[in-house]
Amino acid sequence: MTSARSVRKKTIMSETFPSATTRPDSAVMRERQRLAFDLDVDICVIGAGLAGLTVALEAARLGASVAVLEGRHVGWNASGHQLGTVMPGYGLPISDLIARVGFEDARELWSLSRQGADCVRANATEDLIPGIALSEGALEVSNVDVGDQLISRLQMLSEDFETEVEGWQVERVRDELKTGRYFHGMYYPKAFQIDGGKYVHGLADLARRAGARIFEDTPVVSIDPSGIRKRIVTPSARLRASHIVLAGNVHLGAPLKRLSETLLPVWRYAAVTAPLGERLAEAIRFQGSVTDSDGVDHFRIVDGDRLMWASPETTWAARPQRFAGAIARRIRTIFPQLGNVEIADVFSGAVGQTVHGMPQIGQLRRGLWVSSGFGRQGLNTSAIAGQLIARSILWGDDRWRLFSPFELVWAGGPTGRVAGQLVGMWGRGSSAAAGALARYRERARAQERIREARRLEANRQAGTRPQLRRPPPGRPRPERPPPPAAVDSSEGEGV
Fold first, then answer.
1. Helix pair 94-101, 103-123: axis angle to 10 deg
2. Exposure of 148 by Cβ count < 10 A (0-12 exposed, 13-18 middle, 19+ buried)?
3. Residues 6+ apart with CB under 8 A from 296
4. 336: pLDDT strictly greater than 90
5. Band of pLDDT at residue 27, cut at 50, 70 and 90
6. Which end of the chain has fewer CB atoms < 10 Å from its terminal CB, N or C?
7. Residue 215's beta-bridge partner residues?
């Protein structure tokens, strides 16, 4: 991997949300215990989130012996609180991706993102993961009127990147979302949503059934990646492996500080409302997930008449309940007809966001792999990372090298957190200002159309009145005959 320059990040898609059914049953909990004995395996995965569990599942399916070490429990952080939107793409806009790696490599990377989405869909079935609650379709809406940009982006996605996508005009967007805040939209019919909490625990069950061993409450004290057999030390046991996969987030800790410091921690806060009844259906007809093009809001309907909404974010940890009022106000701002909604619960999770806006996937040194930086990337990206690393270790597949331009870049430490928070606040403010200006211009155009219609109507009515015909210019007006002389009644009388 080589060094990377900082680029603008695009919000897509991997937000946190509360899932009511994310706990594994007691039988599974008994099998996932602390590592209390020395172990020798082919692959040791550190971190039992989406990325680590996907590596474990794919490697176990290919016949490798796999151990997963998790300092707390499966899916305890952001991976267990996913909004659950699955669609192709990355956190980096396509135009920036092309500028960074070139058109052909950008096409290859985009193709991998589609394969990642297909991988999630293959795993997220009711047969494999009961209660996964799959729903179809995702809509990206614009806060400003950008019809020309929409057309060019549609052409690029459909023709050059082979992605099924539809452009929606303003009228159709507002027919599905009863708000004047949004303009054009891009609809992805093959995108889908799942219960993110169910999915991460379902992945753990699938990996266990494939032969992987998952150990919770087993933090890593130190690792020694030198030599053919790598050594991993935990508080109660030692482990040796031919390959180590670092699949943690910002909580990897002191032994893996170098990796943790390349990630900017971002806490995204999400809420689920109390049941809203028929008024929710009157405000929102679209049943898939909705995100705005600036990444400020991400929401969808759950349980029939509840609204799940992710919006505020910070670069430091805070009590989620502090943001209940902010989320309720945001919902009322976008959909005022819903009024004051009751917030049933608020959750958050920390995601690791990279400086360059792309995930970190690849080999740091012989036998030491990294699979991290999935903040704002989506479930599809962690899925393809698991496949690429497992297949490279066991099959020699080297497609992970497509991610080589996106190396580990220091995220700036505490200064980076402050800068990240300020950039986020500036971005949200800019989005609000641009949206307000777009809506003002829309109202001005509407008022001008009304005035023009009134002028036309006035002219039409004026055209039906009889008007005196004026002579053409240059011609003398005809002289009117003099009025007849008055007759004196005394004249003409006989004597």
1. 130
2. exposed
3. 11, 143, 311, 428, 431
4. yes
5. very low
6. C
7. 69
**Residues 6 or more apart whose Cβ sits within 8 Å of residue 150:** 142, 167, 184, 186
Burial of residue 296 (number of CB atoms within 10 Å: 0-12, 13-18, 19+): buried
Over residues 35-85, the pLDDT tens digits come to 999 999 999 999 998 989 999 999 999 999 999 999 888 987 777 677 788
**How far, rounded to the nearest angstrom, does the alpha carbon of residue 358 sit from its chain's CA centroid?**
14
Helix (H) or strand (E) holding 431: helix 413-463
Q: Residue holding tokens 């946190």?
A: 16
Instruction: Tell me the sheet residues that pair with 85.
Output: 193
Provide the residue type at 259 as one letter: L
Lowest model confidence (mean pLDDT) among 125-134, 214-223, 321-330, 470-479: 470-479
**Model pTM?**
0.79
Query: Which residue(s) pair with 233 in the sheet?
Result: 222, 238
**By the 8 A CB rule, do 378 and 291 touch?**
no
Residue 311 and residue 272 in contact, taking contact as beta carbons nearer than 8 Å: no
Cα–Cα dist 186/290, whole Å: 10
Tokens of 228: 């053919």
Which has the closest alpha carbon to 207: 391, 15, 397, 49?
A: 49
